[in-house]
Amino acid sequence: MENKINKTKFYKIYMGIILFAIIFFSYPSTNIYYEIATNIMGLLGCITSILLVYNTYKKTKKNKLKNYWLLNLLAISSFTIGEVIWAIKELFLNEVLIMSDLTTLFYLPCNILLFLSSLILIKQNKKTYKIQKRRVSFDIAIIIIMYISIMFASIMPILNNTQALFNTDIYLILYNILDFMTLINLSIIYIYSNEHMVKCNFFAINFLAILLFSLADLVYMYEILENTYVSNTVLDSLWIISFLLIGLASIEYLFTVESEDDFKNIIECENKDFISYLYIIPIPILFFMDINNKHEAIIGMFISVIVIRQIKVLNENKVLVRKYKLINEGLESAVLERTKELHEKNIELNYLSNKDTLTDLYNRRYLLHKLDELIVNASKDNSKFGILFLDLNKFKNINDLYGHEVGDLLLNEIGNKLQKYSSKNSTIIRQGGDEFVIIYTDIASENDLKSFANQIISEFDEEVCIEKINFNINFSIGGVIYPTDGEDKLTLMKKADMAMYASKKNASSKFSLYKEDSMYNKFKMEELMKKALKNKEFILYYQPQFNIENNKIVGVEALIRWVNDELGFVYPSKFIPLAEETGLIIDMGNWIIESTFLQIKKWQELYNIDIEVGINVSPIQLSDERFLDVLVSNLKNTNINPSLINLEITEKIAIDDSEIIIEKLKKIRDLGIKISIDDFGSGYSSFKYVKSFAVDTLKIDISLIKGIDKSKEDYEIAKAVINMAKGLGLSIVAEGVDSDSQLAVLRNLGCNTVQGYYYEKPMNIEQLEEKYFM
């Protein structure tokens, strides 16, 4: 493994060097510093290759390619000496070099030595050629003819041009002839040692190196003839890169050659079926018996040749069959071994596919599979099992406040704690996010499941410390029992989820078992609400607000109502909490805003009146990221005065996440929209927040108004609220006024606006318009 890692790193670095050399030589310059740099780079490339090839030469055993690497080492060394001489003449003697007799004395031996090294490879594989020569001789002939043709095509323009031939240094032609001969040798080796060489990547790299070297020589010859050669260009880099590739081939050789058999010849195919040729002897004898019939004798000879050829093919096929039989036996063994490996891998992958990567608990995939298995077994032996859905409360706040890394560490620690309860009767699963599932099989009644759930709850009584931060872990847990609550996994999971949400809504209990009636009704109502939003079943009523001095209408509060064909009239106190629980309150609230804005615009167009409208905003709706966009979009679409809108938020919103809420309310007020705190004084200690919040109005809670004329305590609280509002310059609205005595007290306290049954109940649009606008 270490060798592979080292090899990979080496290859990356080495190829980076080659790439750098190519890029560097791609920008030729006459600057002396550039010439120095290119000459140094060339010498460094040669020296690097020398060191690598020398290292391989030293480590190669005598019975392998030791002489091959020796010849390569001598070839690169000879070229390097020529480069040194060239650099000295160019840099220190200021000679403009094109060809140099002195350097040729070292460049030409390089070509000769590379050619000789290719002969070493041929010698190494001569036994292979003897075995296959009848099959590959024709291919070799084609290769030789091809290269000779290319070679003559390359130098023919010079040979045909007497003047060019006279002016051409004979060494240029020798370079290319030697290159072509080397390429012929390497191609021949590839032809008759193809199977062997496929395993030897060093040969492919070496072949590429010689090809680049030959190409450089050929281009060099033509540039010399055309008098266009310039030193220190990309052409020069090709020679250096070819030697770097030879160095890379030497390293590949060391990495891949591991045994004495790596460079043995291909399996010999000895043909011992020569007896089969005896069967053709009667054929020529029969024809030659009639010696006078020369035509028949000739025909006999042709038939003999054809038959010999056919027998030869048959014998070769027999050899191939024997060879492939051996190969197949080896393949069968390899396939069996590989199949075993794959089987083991599949078992491992199957295990991993059923595991959660964060907590190492089982995942949702395993949960579904396990439930199928349990349902089948339980239906056979009439047994029961329970499912617990656990949801970590306020986990989103932890992620937002401390980051997901801390959140992941917390989930992992929770997984470790839950893992304590894993046994043959219980399976712990992380379904996803902050949701966990426990399957508990050892139950006879509801009490068994309750007892187990309480154990889980007790486990988290103490705080969990993560990154020096202490967390109180609170779960909402819902439970179901098979087959009481369902006979298929989807039904069981849906009902367990419903029970978990019921637990989340019930502050007094952390665990809830599924109850058919109440939970089914909630589920049914949720579905009906979705349809109601789609079919526009909801309508808006408006309750007027009056000035206490002149009894004139000064505003209205928009109130949503729902009449369903199946459920009849549904009180807001029933469907609003469910809408908040399910998240439908966002779409519902957006519909109320859109409808109210359009209604204000309609009243302006029909009656030329501007009346302030209060809109109740749910905490969930206010925390929605798109809330501001909804307001801006509706203001833009209707072009109404934003001061006619008064958003009513509950007193509880002023307590929770105050910094975030303050920032959002300021942005709303910047739009020109007014803000009211509804149900003010209902029990929260929010007096200190009023100054911080950007609000315009305080609406006194109805519970204070009911006792304002009877209870001294309610009176004093209402009085304090009114005085505080006046001191801060805020408007006051008393809601829920339904008697003369309440109205009298409010008038004495200086409350300016009232709302309640004393004046009007909530009215539909037609009633409101007919009574107050027409």
Mind explaining what this structure looks like?
With 774 residues, the chain is α/β, with parallel strands linked by helices. α2 packs parallel to α10 and α14 crosses α15. Helix content is 63%, strand content 12%. It contains 28 helices and 16 strands. The longest helix has 60 residues, at 294-353. The model is unreliable at 1-5, 194-199, 258-283 and 285-300 (pLDDT under 50). The strands form three sheets. The protein has an eight-stranded mixed β-barrel, surrounded by five helices. Strands 2-3-1-6-7 form a five-stranded mixed sheet, sandwiched between helices.
What is the CA-CA span between the terminal residues? 91 Å
Summarize the amount of helix as a percent range: 55-70%
Provide the low-confidence segments as ranges. 1-5, 194-199, 258-283, 285-300
Number of strands: 16
How would you sum up the global shape? elongated
- C-alpha-based Rg, rounded: 47 Å
| Main sheet attributes: strand count, strand direction, barrel closure | 8 strands, mixed, barrel
Order the strands across the largest sheet as they lie in space: 8-9-11-12-13-14-15-16
Average pLDDT figure: 78
Strand content: 5-15%
Helical element count? 28
Classification by helices and strands: alpha/beta
